[in-house]
Amino acid sequence: MSLLLPVREDLAGLEPYGAPQLDVPVRLNVNENPYAPSPEVIADITRSVAKAAPTLNRYPDRDFTELRYALADYLEVESGVRRAPELIWAANGSNEIMTQILQAFGGPGRTLVSFAPTYSMYHEYARDTNTTWVQGRRLDDFSLDLDAVARVLARERPAVLVLASPNNPTGTALPQEQQRAIMEMTRESGPIINGCPSATLVVIDEAYGEFRREGVPSALELLEDAPHLVVTRTMSKAFGMAGLRLGYMSAAREIIDAVMLVRLPYHLSALTQAAALAALRYKDSLMAQVGALRKERDGLVDWLRTHGFHALDSDANFVLFGTFEDRTAIFEALLARGVLIRVVGPEGWLRVSVGTPEETRLFTTALEEITR
Ligand SMILES: *Cc1c(COP(=O)(O)O)cnc(C)c1O
User: Fold this and answer.
1) pLDDT for 349
2) Judging by DSSP bridges, how do beta strands 201-205 and 196-197 pair with one another?
3) Cα-based distances in Å from 291 to 57, 162, 261, 317
4) Is 131's C-beta closer than 6 angstroms to any atom of ligand 1?
5) Which helix (H) or strand (E) holds 286?
6) Which of 152, 223, 290, 318 has its CA 20 to 30 A from that of 216?
7) Does residue 29 have its Cβ closer than 6 Å to ligand 1?
8) Which residues pair with 13 in a beta bridge?
């Protein structure tokens, strides 16, 4: 007996997206922090979850007030920008934040714009929320061309523009002058509503913000003067908590109010809130670790360049390197040696995450063997 299930026609036949999760010795494919939480962090998370467990018959604090205070304190220490806790919003990963933004600002008749090469998930959030997806191109050196941005804005009148900075998979952050120029260009470039041009919501995805190089500012600095700016962050990368699923944003009050209309009830579990609060108590030691990872990254870029490869400058915890006639063959040969990286980005390039010094050594040794 067969029957036809009414799955949405635009989803029919698609494969679910996801990087391979392979059990190999050296995993440098999804930009995780290579260091497991320290024993003191583990102990605090355990205590905090145990304390929350007896209250699990009740729904959690749906506005996660304490967590918003802790995130505001963290952002201040990390970037020097003080944001009021009410201007912070969190969800299960910055992926959920992005989906909530599109649920509130995208949808049928609305457009999301981005510039390739960039994070491939943006396309899926657009599809899932029935938002039209338009992708412009970056220049050949992967920087953003403001004239191209202006043209796409004029043509599409997008409701949302998303820019990863530092960008994934290329690694570099947008210069602050460009960010400022984009905030000006987008004040009236959005959909026409009752005859009036609205703004385009600009989402700067700072998933890798903590890894930016010395002197590279955060887009958080622009929030005060830009009511149409959203800066997203995550605990998945620098914070070493990918398994926790905690992403967040800071934005104007009106934007957070709109997102609160579409969020699922009690979307952030009491256990997530307790564990995130515990982890945030160790922000100082975590930030020291980020410093070490940055050094490791700069060392990896140097190594690649002195060994005849191209490697892009990186403000993130990964490096895009190449170029290879057959990048899949290089990927497979590394995998055969127990090193998993990522085939992503423009043809000929590969992306490797920054690991421990030992993992970097295993990667560079294997790469040298393969390409010698
Ligand atoms: C890894 C990554 C994220 C993080 O997503 P989470 O849902 O917070 O784990 C967001 N944006 C970009 C560009 C990323 O590479």
Assistant:
1) 97
2) unpaired
3) 41, 27, 38, 11
4) no
5) helix 283-306
6) 152
7) no
8) none
The domain spans of the chain are 19-37+284-371, 40-282
- Looking at the domain covering 19-37+284-371, what would its CATH class be? alpha beta
Q: 17-26, 50-59, 199-208, 220-229 — which is least confidently predicted? A: 17-26
Ligand 1 centroid–CA 164 distance in Å is: 9
Pocket flag, ligand 1, residue 111 (CB < 6 Å): no
Do 19-37+284-371 and 40-282 come out as alike in CATH topology? no
Q: What is the pLDDT of residue 366?
A: 98
Q: Is 94 in the pocket of ligand 1 (CB under 6 A)?
A: yes
Question: Which atom of ligand 1 is the closest one to the Cα of 94?
Answer: 8
Over its C-alpha atoms, the chain yields an Rg (Å, rounded) of 21
Mutate which of 31, 94, 165, 206 for ligand 1 pocket (most atoms within 8 A of beta carbon): 94
For residue 25, the model assigns a pLDDT of 94
Query: What's the pLDDT tens digit per position in 37-55?
Result: 999 999 999 999 999 999 9
Average pLDDT over residues 319-345: 97
Give the least confident one: 16-30, 176-190, 292-306, 355-369: 16-30
Residues 240/37, Cβ–Cβ less than 8 Å: yes
Assessment of whether the complete model's pTM goes beyond 0.85: yes
pLDDT tens digits along 188-214: 999 999 999 999 999 999 999 999 999
Q: What is the pLDDT of residue 19?
A: 78
The answer to whether the Cα torsion of 345, 349, 350, 355 is positive or negative is negative
Question: Residue 182: pLDDT above 80?
Answer: yes
> What is the spatial distance between Cα 6 and Cα 12, in angstroms, rounded to a whole number?
9
Residue 328 CA to ligand 1 centre (angstroms) = 24
Ligand 1 close to Cβ of residue 207 (< 6 A): yes
103 in ligand 1 pocket by Cβ < 6 Å?
Answer: no
